[in-house]
Amino acid sequence: MGCDAVAAEVHPYLDDQLEPDRVGRIQEHLRGCAACTQLYERQRAMNSVIRQHAHYYTAPKHLARSIRSNLRTLAEAERPRRRNAWGWFASGAAFASAATLAVSLSLLQPGPRGGGLEQELIAAHVRSLMANHLTDVASSDQHTVKPWFSGKLDMSPPVTDLTAEGYPLVGGRLDYLDQRAVVALVYRHNQHPINLFVWPGDAAATPLLARQGYNLVRWSQGGMTFAAVSDLNPADLQDFQKLIARSAP
Ligand SMILES: [Zn+2]
């Protein structure tokens, strides 16, 4: 069984919808393939986030079925074009199962949901992965990414490429948090995407916290608030935080 086949079945596998022999073959592949294991772990974490929001909204069965079939068609169309591991991951995210996607509609709505800012930050991170919308401007060149924001926001975010340090800049996008537009810079470490949200104003720092399979750290400096969210391990995320703190004003 190849990696593509595993990627295509990771959701039904997570949802216990596969025949036993299929399950056995996927498990056998996962034992020998770090990349697919990572994909599986990430999807499992994402599902658990979604499940915790499941009480907000449950899709009727017919809607779930139609979303699932649309997603399959989309995924089929996308797969052959995506060959590298990063694209392959993004395509895996597009396989989000119908129930997952339908339930996650509640995550797409900004505004307080009882979990405060941290919850919103994690939701924004998950949303960027699920909607396959990590970047509006995709570039590892800080001189391309930084000007892209000018005129869109009344702030100029510090943008630094950290490729040499092992955290290449992937791009940026506008996001929406706490009822305002914010900068989202996207970095990557190994295959893990990191969202770095930046907005004006000081706020009390949040030491590194783990929630729903993601790690999050928030701090202020130079009149701006920074929040990094990723499924990276805590040590690497703190490493990333130090690098950003050192490079920002
Ligand atoms: Zn594999």
What does this structure look like?
This protein is of the alpha+beta class and 249 residues long. The chain folds into 2 domains: 3-108, no CATH class; 134-247, Phosphorylase Kinase, domain 1 (2-Layer Sandwich). 47% of the residues lie in helices and 20% in strands. The protein has a 7-stranded antiparallel beta sheet with strand order 1-2-3-4-7-6-5, with helices on both faces. Strand 5 and strand 6 (214-221) form a beta hairpin. Helix 1 packs parallel to helix 3 (34-52), helix 2 (20-32) packs across helix 3 and helix 4 (61-78) packs across helix 6 (98-104). The radius of gyration is 18 Å and the shape is elongated. The termini are far apart. Mean pLDDT is 79; it is low at 80-88, 94-99 and 102-114. It binds zinc ion.
Structure summarized in a few sentences:
The protein has 249 residues and is an alpha+beta fold.
Secondary-structure class:
alpha+beta
- The fourth-level CATH homologous superfamily of the largest domain is MucB/RseB, C-terminal domain
Rg calc: 18 Å
Oligomer, anyone?
A: single chain
Small-molecule binders here are: zinc ion
Strand line-up of the largest beta sheet: 1-2-3-4-7-6-5
Shape: elongated
Low-confidence stretches: 80-88, 94-99, 102-114
What portion of residues belong to β-strands?
A: 15-25%
State the order of secondary-structure elements, H for helix, E for strand.
HHHHHHHEHEEEEEEH
Total DSSP E strands = 7
Q: Please write the CATH class name of the largest domain.
A: Alpha Beta
Largest sheet: 7 strands, antiparallel
